[in-house]
Specification:
Blueprint (H helix, E strand, L loop, with lengths): L6 H15 L20 E3 H4 L13 E4 L2 E4 L5 E9 L7 E7 L5 E5 L6 E3 L21 E3 L11 E5 L9 H17 L15 E6 L18 E6 L5 E10 L2 E10 L5 E2 L9 E2 H12 L31 H10 L1
Bound molecules: zinc ion.
Length: 328
């Protein structure tokens, strides 16, 4: 699947030209868009931007953000998708759909920039920083979303849909290790972590993550979950988080099981994606971490692109830990 980063802005430009050419539309206020007509319940992001779901009477509206169709959250809630790219995929995918308390929709497209960034060794474009120390460098990237007032949450671990070559025992063990790494802030360095997030796991769950093959976020069901299912376009893992202001409400993680080679152990990894690496990365999203830049510190756990057998990212680096500490 090829994604078009500029599809929305292009659509806005096209819509603007149409409005300019249509005399009847001239009376519409720019900040008071009319209620567009969904097609099969779906509005394109460009048409949904700025609408009021309450005034328009939209109850089960879905929005298509560059091919990912999500259920619009209730007023006061923002849903965010963050997806990690595997080999052969040029960029990660991300977007947010926010509905404010009054019902106004705002769509943000593209890999999401944290609200605070103090990166010390970021490269630019395809150029990595000249020198780099995983245990000493990396940005402090904080978006401020977190589990609060208590740090912890319960993650339901689904026990079906596992890809071939990954046993249930191995899957449960890997999620347990990923939980431990994020929960305790375990790094590949010599830092003492000093905090516990108190993430609880429920193994053997039948809960289904509200993440679709198109990286659309479904309807929030009140249960955070992780499980396997197909994801299009070379994406290895995708996480939807829902939040009210900065308070996380739910995190759902899908791991790709569409004809992908996963490795459940570092010893036997060959031309395969390391399952624990991706699970740890997605759990980072589930507690509110956003992506670290790929260039300059591409081996941090929260860098967005994964390479085959890249096991160093199973444990956090300095930039990951600092981001986690800023949140908790
Ligand atoms: Zn990610």
């Amino acid at each position: 699947m090829r994604r078009h980063a500029h599809a929305v802005s292009g659509a806005i430009a096209a819509a603007t030209m149409l409005l300019a050419a249509a005399p009847l539309a001239a009376t519409a206020e720019p900040d008071d868009p009319a209620c567009p007509t969904p097609v099969a319940g779906v509005l394109e992001a460009a048409d949904a931007e700025g609408i009021n779901v309450l005034d328009c009477g939209f109850e089960d509206l879905r929005i298509d953000v560059d091919g990912s169709v999500s259920v619009v959250p209730e007023p006061g809630v923002t849903v965010t998708m963050e997806a990690a790219a595997g080999p052969g995929t040029d960029q990660p995918v991300g977007y947010s759909i926010a509905v404010d308390a009054d019902g106004i929709v705002a769509v943000t497209e593209g890999d999401l920039a944290p609200t605070v960034e103090t990166s010390s060794q970021e490269g630019s474009g395809d150029t990595p920083a000249a020198s780099y120390d995983r245990c000493g460098q990396g940005g402090t990237w904080v978006n401020g979303w977190k589990w609060q007032p208590t740090r912890g949450f319960t993650l339901n671990v689904r026990d079906w849909g596992l890809p071939s070559g990954v046993s249930l025992t191995a899957w449960n063990d890997i999620v347990d290790k990923a939980q431990w790494t994020i929960d305790r802030g375990i790094t590949s360095c010599s830092f003492s972590n000093g905090f516990v997030l108190d993430i609880a796991l429920v193994l053997g769950s039948d809960r289904t993550e509200q993440v679709g093959p198109d990286m659309g976020c479904g309807e929030r069901d009140g249960y955070s979950s992780i499980g396997f299912g197909p994801i299009d376009g070379g994406i290895v893992g995708a996480t939807c988080t829902w939040r009210s202001s900065t308070r996380l409400l739910e995190a759902d993680i899908r791991m790709d099981n569409s004809n992908r080679r996963w490795s459940a152990s570092s010893a036997s990894c060959s031309q395969a994606m390391d399952l624990r690496t991706v699970a740890t990365h997605e759990l980072g999203h589930a507690v509110g971490l956003s992506h670290q830049g790929e260039y300059g510190h591409g081996d941090l756990t929260m860098s967005p692109t994964m390479r085959n057998c890249e096991v160093i990212q199973r444990q956090l680096g300095y930039g990951d830990l600092v981001s986690l500490r800023h949140h908790y």
